[in-house]
Amino acid sequence: MKSKFPSNRKVQLAFGSAIFALLVAGAVSYRAVVLSNESDRWLRHTHEVLANLHDLGFAMETIESSSRGFVLTGNESYLETGRASRLIVARDEEIVRNLTVGNPKQQNQLPALEKLTAEQFALADLVISRRRAQGLEAAGDVIRSESNQRIMIEFLAIGSKMQGEELRLLVLRNADAKRRLTQTKTVLVLGLVLGLLITGAAGWSTHRDSSNRKRAKSKLLLLTERLSLATAVAKIGVWEWDSGSNSVTWDATMFEIYGLPLVVPMLYERCPS
Fold first, then answer.
1. Which of 108, 119, 118, 116 is nearest to 162 (CA)?
2. CATH 1.10.1200.10, applies to 4-205
3. Across-strand partners of 240?
4. What angle do CA 41, 48, 174 make, to 5 degrees?
5. What pTM does this model have?
6. 20 to 30 Å CA-CA from 137: which of 102, 154, 166, 245?
7. What's the CA gap between 149 and 235, in Å, rounded?
8. CB 142 within 8 A of CB 84
9. What is the pLDDT of residue 55?
């Protein structure tokens, strides 16, 4: 029993180490997955900001074009489109403000953007009132004014600048997401390989110890048989010890049964039959 204890302890230690390695790899992998998910969330966040900035610019252009359409045709349906676009502008500005709350560069651009939005709304109202009160020519003068062109140019410039900032962040966050994904894969593979190596080493050690125990058991069994044989010869066979010649002699019948003794510190001679 004592010879088996160290072997069992070694096996338990090996498999315990394998389990610990797998647990550590699992914990590190879990953390890497969490960080990777966080990177993916920021990627989606950036795409959302870009989409809202695009919608904001499109809605502002729709307000101007609907004013032009009303001036040229007098069709009230253009005004409905313009009012819907104003709601979209207000909604998108609020969304962009909330999404970029942690980005000072983007937040600093919003006041100028909102100021231009208010100017565009006021100019559209002026165009509509001039068209209704003074006719096509007076409304056309407002549309062709320097102020109208300036508002849209400045608005689109700020929108483009904000999109550029988001695209810069997109590149950085995309690279970070790829890096974390690579780290996650590496940790998973290394953890799996380490666990397999430790488990394999434990299995090999167990097999080696088992083989050693089998060989030791076989030797012990053989020794026991030989001792039993020697004991049987000593009890049953007819033998005598000659101290002068340092030899043991026994009768021929016992020699035929048992053969030569295995422990040979002396010479052996067969007794005459």
1. 108
2. no
3. 249
4. 50
5. 0.60
6. 154
7. 127
8. no
9. 94
Q: How many residues are recorded in the chain?
A: 273
* Domain segments of the chain as ranges: 4-205, 233-273
Encoded tokens for 238: 């007819």
Are 39 and 177 in contact, with CB atoms under 8 Å apart?
Answer: yes
Task: Determine which helix (DSSP H) or strand (DSSP E) holds 250, and give its type and residue range.
Answer: strand 247-250
Beta bridge mates, 241: 248
The confidence score (pLDDT) of residue 268 equals 41
Tokens of 214: 């089998």
Residue type, 120: Q
Between CA 197 and CA 7 the distance in angstroms is 19
Query: How many angstroms separate the CA atoms of 115 and 105, rounded?
Result: 17
| Gap between the Cα atoms of 53 and 129, Å rounded | 29
